[in-house]
Amino acid sequence: MSTRDFIEKDYYAALGVAQDADAAAVKKAYRQLARDLHPDKNPGNADAEARFKEVSEAYDVLSDPKRRAEYDEARRLFGAGGAGARAGFPGGFPGGAGGGQPFDLGDLFGATGGTRAGGGAGGLGDLFGGLFGGGGAGTGSARARSQAASGPARGQDVETEATLSFEEAVLGVTVPLRMQSPGTCPTCHGSGARPGTSPHTCPVCQGAGVTSRSQGAFAFSEPCRNCRGTGQVVDDPCPTCAGNGVTNQTRTITVRIPAGVKDGQRIRLAGKGAPGRRGGPAGDLFVVVHVSDHELFGRKGNDLTLTVPITFAEATLGATLTVPTLDGNVTLKVPAGTASGQTLRVRGRGVPGRGRAGDLLVTVEVAVPKRLTPAAEEAVKVLEAELGDPRPRITAAVQQGSAR
Ligand SMILES: [Zn+2]
Ligand SMILES: [Zn+2]
């Protein structure tokens, strides 16, 4: 039994029962027909033989509650054959009679690539997966799954996290990342076929993956339902991947995190996600970056920030300071008369970036000693007497008794 069987065959009609017929009614109808059509009763009658097979197949499905539910669901989604089928595809299939490339089969039908297809169509892979996946329901499910895996499909996008030191985030770093993602099955190398067997060309679409159907004045291209658009079918699925061609694998890959990433940033590394299948392109890798704090530096966009204590003498007289950067030391001039809290800019010594690098922003703070030696205290008192009142306007206002 295949997907196509589910969609095209009307098992209820075959048994002559209503869609809501209960199990007893189905059984009764089958018994009657099986008696009438039995080959022993109809020797040499090809029609009766074909009908007998049809009835048996219908009963196989309808007598099994699980398979009957799957069958009903398939008919509901894809239409009970004929005209209803197209409307059942939630996203619709764009591309009409002459459309050379009506849709991206890999995205629509890849077992893992479905997220890329827009809108409702993206769910199609999931629908198939839900209907025919899960295994255990007989050969039909394994076969349907293997078919999905046998065409080119884009690899899955993978998201992972990386914790970087402050310097690594600023300067860029190459890190090994361990991740779990679907990868090409090592047993069948992605073909989905049991080793020693190989997939063969789908007999329904002759390998094209597409069938066309006329409806009124229009012709529609649709993914072939027998092979689910892959052009190939697998009869004997690979035992490792159940015919998917893909298994979940732990991989360690080395990725270059570019310079200048920020804490919480999600960076996309094109083509570093799960490998594609059968020539399909690899998915993308998204890395959410966590950046540790630095004991000295902070960041403001592409600028590095650094707070540097200076003495009163340095602030007053001016000084040349040597300060660290993430890449060697730099010297900077503190002009005479620099106020505490003033920020000095060292161009180009911040976060390296595409185009212009950021700056190093050095904020100077005049250090006020908590304790003084007697000699220092004497010296400060002398200085204070020399400098005089630092706030003459305030003093004047105070003397007037009001600031108005
Ligand atoms: Zn395999
Ligand atoms: Zn086909």
Automatic annotation (TrEMBL):
Binds 2 Zn(2+) ions per monomer. Its cofactor is Zn(2+). Pfam families: DnaJ, DnaJ_C, DnaJ_CXXCXGXG. Zn(2+) 1 binds at residues 185, 188, 238, 241. InterPro entries: DnaJ (IPR012724), DnaJ_C (IPR002939), DnaJ_domain (IPR001623), DnaJ_domain_CS (IPR018253), HSP40/DnaJ_pept-bd (IPR008971), HSP_DnaJ_Cys-rich_dom (IPR001305), HSP_DnaJ_Cys-rich_dom_sf (IPR036410), J_dom_sf (IPR036869). Residues 140-155 have a biased composition (Low complexity). One of its GO terms (molecular function) is zinc ion binding. GO terms for biological process: DNA replication; protein refolding; response to heat. Residues 10-75 form the J domain. It is found in: Cytoplasm. Residues 139-160 are annotated as: Disordered. The keyword Zinc-finger applies. Homodimer. Participates actively in the response to hyperosmotic and heat shock by preventing the aggregation of stress-denatured proteins and by disaggregating proteins, also in an autonomous, DnaK-independent fashion. Unfolded proteins bind initially to DnaJ; upon interaction with the DnaJ-bound protein, DnaK hydrolyzes its bound ATP, resulting in the formation of a stable complex. GrpE releases ADP from DnaK; ATP binding to DnaK triggers the release of the substrate protein, thus completing the reaction cycle. Belongs to the DnaJ family. This is Chaperone protein DnaJ. It comes from Geodermatophilus africanus. The gene is dnaJ.
